[in-house]
Amino acid sequence: MSRMHRGLPRGGDGPRKITLQEWGERRERLVLEGLREPWYGGPLQRHVEEGDLRLTSLMFDDSASALRLWNFLLSEEDRLREHKAAGRVLVGAMKDLGTVPVMAWSVPDLAAFYLDGAWWIPCVMELSAPLMDVASSMGLDDSFCPVRAVLGACVTGEHFPLPDMVTCSVGATCDDLSAVAQRLEGIGHPVTWWEVPHRRRPERGEESVVLPGGFVAPQEQVDFVRGELERVRAALQTRSRCKLDDAALSSGIKAANRMRAVLEELRSLAYSAVPCPLPSLEMQVAEMLALHFCSDVEESIAVLTDLADEVKARVKAGVGPLSRDAVPVFWVNPVADMRVMNLIEDCGGRVAGTEYLFSHALDPIPEDVQPMEALARTALADPMVGSAADRAARILADVVKFGARAVIISRIPGASHCATEGLAIKEYVRASLDIPVMEIEVPPLSDAFGASLRTRIDAVLEAARQARAPR
User: Fold this and answer.
1) SS3 for 429?
2) What predicted TM-score, i.e. pTM, was given to this entire model?
3) Is 294:73 a contact under the CB 8 Å cutoff?
4) What is the DSSP code (8-state) at residue 364?
5) What gap in Å lies between CA 337 and CA 346, rounded to an integer?
6) What is the DSSP string of 288-299?
7) What is the pLDDT of residues 294-306, one digit of tens each?
8) Cα separation of 448 and 451, whole Å?
9) Which of 3.40.50.11900, 3.30.1390.20, 3.30.70.100, 3.40.50.720 would CATH assign to domain 3-74+249-355+387-468?
10) CATH: 3.30.950.10, 3.30.980.10, 3.40.50.11890, 3.10.620.30. Which one for 83-244?
């Protein structure tokens, strides 16, 4: 992609956020100027015609690299169907944010995808697909997390090709997701279960290991998780025509780390530079690619590299789509409605650091130990399998690192892990830093609560401004 398509000042105008309609007009100009798109490129509007109605309510970054990012994300179903047509075994990974996909993508005849990513479908399609109704009819009503949409998607079979095998991490994890996976197995989708214990702190004198991201765990627990992942490797191997040996896994880990290195550079710049060089919505999509590579390892690296180059160019030029005085906010938990990431910027804020429940999928996987040992350490570094205090400590460190002046914790409706953890994190941060911390709940569609959400976000941003105002 040539430099003339970077989001640098054009005729005196800097980067900005634009509507879906404006993107259609901008793309036409870029194509006339010589924009070369990948095979999945094209106008974003076509995804609305395919049912992704929420796109009409969003504001997008106006760079060609952002266009590529969105088209890459929204064309994943096409890639999965191509993988299936090519004879690859589709592996649906549940409650496994960045471990089994690394294993599966280490050989060419397996293709893994984040099955419970379907929890965003009700938002993206503005509830036009009856996934929640299907889940409710099968015993998973709205007292469950929106991840129950996975069940509806697997029953209807309309949103992605059904996986040939399913894996699911259980133990110290989300009860809602475990219930969904059990229901899936009950209707004929066999699940390869593997357990991750509650991560505990080593006792005095007990052999321990530092995990990616800095948590510490007993070697005994790492050994247990390694044994569980060996069972997963055996299950994957039975479906593969290729050897899923240590050499293949080492190659897969190196590819994952290449992506994570680019993403770390992107996060570091996007969350700390002034003005903010990339909106929070595109950053959320970029971070999600780390979970399973959006079904194409090399292309996901290329997409993120292109985005990072855009951000570096903007930082060098001192430009960005947001105001220089936007209040930096650290965001905890992914939102059920992506529109809220626009809303915080509409209120005069910017996201400066995130913890979307998968920080272990962003950390480099160790390359100086045997690959299964490295993957076990990565799995045990999941912030959800340890104490709320451990998770809060990492959040606090990143709040300080990125210079955030407020923290917003987004509760996920019905999610078992959100019931008390948000309060624990809020109290931990408040006890350590004199900055405002607020919890909000975001439903799959927030339109009816828009005014209330705006008022609450306005309040926390104003509190942050007042805390920094001269006295």
Assistant:
1) helix
2) 0.94
3) yes
4) P
5) 15
6) HHHHHGGG-HHH
7) 999 999 999 999 9
8) 8
9) 3.40.50.11900
10) 3.40.50.11890
